[in-house]
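Checked the freezer inventory, then went back to the computational side. Two predictions to log before the end of the day. The first one is the construct we discussed on Monday; recording sequence and tokens without edits.
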Amino acid sequence: MVSSLLPVMVLVACSWSTTGRTEEKTGMVRLVHIKSFEPFAVVKEGKSEGLAIDILTAIFAKANLKVVFIAEQQDRAEDLLLRGEAEGLAFFGINPARKNTFDFTNPYLISGGALYTKAPNAPCSDLKELEGKTVVTPLKGPLAEYIREKFPKVNLYTDVKDYQATLEAVLNGKAAALNTQVGAVLAQSLFPGKFSLPSKGFLEVPIGVAVLKEEQDDLLIRFNEGLKAILTDGTYDKIITKWGVPASTKPSSR
């Protein structure tokens, strides 16, 4: 279930050979993402923008590689990888099952689910504190199943059509469970100052670049080095401040 939290996938197509050796380095990496999943990635006026776009751009810059972003439909993601038309999935939830098929970079972003309450109430990050109370989340979203299974004493309300309607329900005295980054960006843009934004999520899903096993060792090494650099020099902090997402978005430096 957790693996479905973030349906958006981004493909990384680059100049590496399928053995992972860089015999013909062009210094260019193509990153393919689905056309719209704000705030992670979206195309505006022909240009890719978003939280993930900024993070990935900074990482590859530290790795001395130029990035070209290409928008694509989600359903082509893994097929392109398996056919050899791309080298990796760059926005992919890391879990044990997927490690049987893929090698992963270190996590470059932590997503998942977070709770949103009406200001000036204190932020909440523990669903156990809301047992017996009403929490709103869209029925078609992945968090409803998780809350129903893990926190059966929470009164779950799912009769909302989208994230905006979910946030509006909070203004009427309820709490909302939404994607950590999407919820924060929408709350601030649609209802500035009316929400207590969470400092961390109640469910955390590490996101990394996935490649077919034992085929992209050089790419993984260079990516991890670039990630470590932006985590330690302040670049990562500037990006999450720009997008207004919780500090828990930032993975630990290792």
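The second is the one RB wanted added to the comparison set:
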Amino acid sequence: MALAPALVGLPSASASVVPRQVDYLRISITDRCNERCLYCLPENFSAWTPREELLSYDEILAVVRGAVGQGFRHFRVTGGEPLIREGAPEFIGQLIATPGVETVQLTTNGTRLPRLARELKRTGLERINVSLDALDPEVYRDLTRGSIEPVLEGIALCRELGFRSLKLNTVLMRGKNDDQIEPLIDFAARHDLVLRFIELMPVSLTEMLDASNFLPVGEVMQRLRRDDRLEPIEDGLPLGRGPAKYYRLAKRGVTLGFIGALTDLHFCDHCNKMRLTADGNIRPCLGNHIEFDLKPALRPTDSAGEIPSIAAILQQARVEKPLEHLFRNQYQPQRIMTAIGG
């Protein structure tokens, strides 16, 4: 995707870069999803990973134990849509109970929350991010091919159950959901939710990956400043461990996060994460094709040669983690987003 010429982005971080502490692993437990968001899945895509190629829960937990030994402390369960995989709540409970794991979060499209939120709460899960790109039912259906009703029901139930952190994620798409920005802000304010706006990234093989669809977060911020005041929240750590910059919209009293992967030129300076794909690869950077296969360590064969350990593979991936992504360099994705993990 070619970036639009005018870079109206977030305030840049300091030019001085401190060494990155990579201690956050995002775990995809499936590449399948029950929705087809425009920016994520091609309309007729069906090349799902064969089930035997997906890591089992026991294999994922083995990776987690290895990661803890390498200093990882924070974990997020993603997909595809993670809650469509059978046994997901039980796995999340096991992940939470793993020694050395400090925080566990879940990213979901919310469609399964009405039936699973209570079970998830019983596992000890306290932090959920829900993808919500529109409030208008027709716009939502156009964007996701799904129905918004169970998502809103799931959000309401999670609020009722008292999850410690419940955030909404909105991917910005010019001409697609830019008219949903104000309704989403009002919804977040009304229900005391954190809302995060995310720039469209070239992470999937779809027609959406075009500059005409790109809406910079900085442009949204300028729009909001016309009749309100954005007050920076200096200490964003309690709100999350990712790259979002958080602000308080003064008049409406709502907390907004902005993730500008393309327009924030210092976006990668403090990146603390790597990804575990559902088929067993460690991906140090979302915007780079480098991956490290963990399957030899997880499923050793009788073939000659030394078998690398999980710890050794994780350490190699950490050492070779790129200093910055390639999204601004005419990046062409080779795997769909659901295969990489959100």
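For RB: The two ends are 19 Å apart (CA to CA). The CA atoms of residues 3 and 114 lie 38 Å apart. Let me know if you want it refolded.
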